[in-house]
Amino acid sequence: MLKIFNQSKHQEKLNLLIWFRLARLYHASIRLSNQHLSQWNLTTSQFDLLVQIGTHQPLSQQELAEKLFVTKGNITQSIVRLEKLELVKRDQEWRTKILRLTKKGEELFGEVVPKQELFQASQFEGLNKEEQKELLRLLKKVEVHNTKTSIKE
Amino acid sequence: MLKIFNQSKHQEKLNLLIWFRLARLYHASIRLSNQHLSQWNLTTSQFDLLVQIGTHQPLSQQELAEKLFVTKGNITQSIVRLEKLELVKRDQEWRTKILRLTKKGEELFGEVVPKQELFQASQFEGLNKEEQKELLRLLKKVEVHNTKTSIKE
DNA sequence: TTTAATCAGTTTAGCACTAAACTGATTAAA
DNA sequence: TTTAATCAGTTTAGTGCTAAACTGATTAAA
To answer: Rounded CA gap, B153 and B151, in Å?
Structure first.
């Protein structure tokens, strides 16, 4: 609590800079990823869906939404698109819909995932190993702190 | 060049983790910001437009697009919305359109910007000053590296 | 001077996402 | 047993974004 008031003007500016850098890096990275994925006619969000389904199948739409931190409505819409591309299939089971990759989906998964992961990882090769570890640690710390403090409100 | 091939399997996994954390932090942060801004009926991207115009006015749509790293088409659309809200006005000057805040826009700018900046900055108060500096340094380094290497392709 | 290049902004089609209201089925409480 | 709560997924309206094609005006080259 005190921290908020202790935060000096100078520190506020510093944090603001961090936020701008983070947002810019994220956007630049998404753009590059989309370019890289376009050779398989995929977008980054479709890729994310593919990774989650391929890794955790069979799973429900609800579970998928939770893993990706998006709404159920979003899942409904994007899965329909993947279904049209014949990459994912849905089976009504009990009262939920169970998602699985199709044969075509599995093949794409096997080909794209390793390459795209290599690509995404290469974004951080400008740092040495120590720096990479430190960056990960700091990001984790920020996230943990924010999760804790937002619960109590 | 060599770096790419030197990159060990282990390091790739580490970098992938960084990417996931970064994306998650970004999304969580955007969501919180949107919530915080909803009391003024603004979204984060409208806020960003307001900040840029308020800080650099008068400026053209082209210049605004460059500052925000978005397309001209996006600017056209979002400025129309801000115009409808009577926060921004456009004047055709020579062959460009010059953007300025309206009186209403100036008032909102004066009220919201300091509060929202304080809020955004508070996201990183889980780190001490040294850690904040280090995080900024690392983000910069990643960005610089990526800018350099993407030019040559 | 006609012709072509350039340049600011607009339009269109489509993907991604949310909040909020809504279905339809299951389960629990009265 | 009727009534209400819950729960998975869907729909709708609206914002935000891109790529790519397009206007209309200015400027340069032939």
So the answer is: 6
Q: In chain B, which ranges are continuous DSSP H helix?
A: 2-6, 9-37, 44-56, 61-68, 72-84, 103-122, 129-151
Q: In what order do the strands lie in the sheet with A88-93?
A: A59-60, A96-101, A88-93
Q: Are B24 and A146 in contact (CB under 8 A)?
A: no
**A47 contacts A15 by C-beta, under 8 angstroms:** no
Spatial distance between the Cα atoms of B124 and A15, rounded to a whole number of angstroms? 6
pLDDT of residue A27: 87
Predicted TM-score of the model (pTM)? 0.85
- Tell if the CB–CB gap between A142 and B120 is shorter than 8 Å: no
Pairwise CB contact (< 8 Å): A141 & B131: yes
CB-nearest partner of B126 from A17, A23, A142: A142
Nearest to A142 among B7, B12, B123 (CB): B123
Tokens of A131: 């720096």
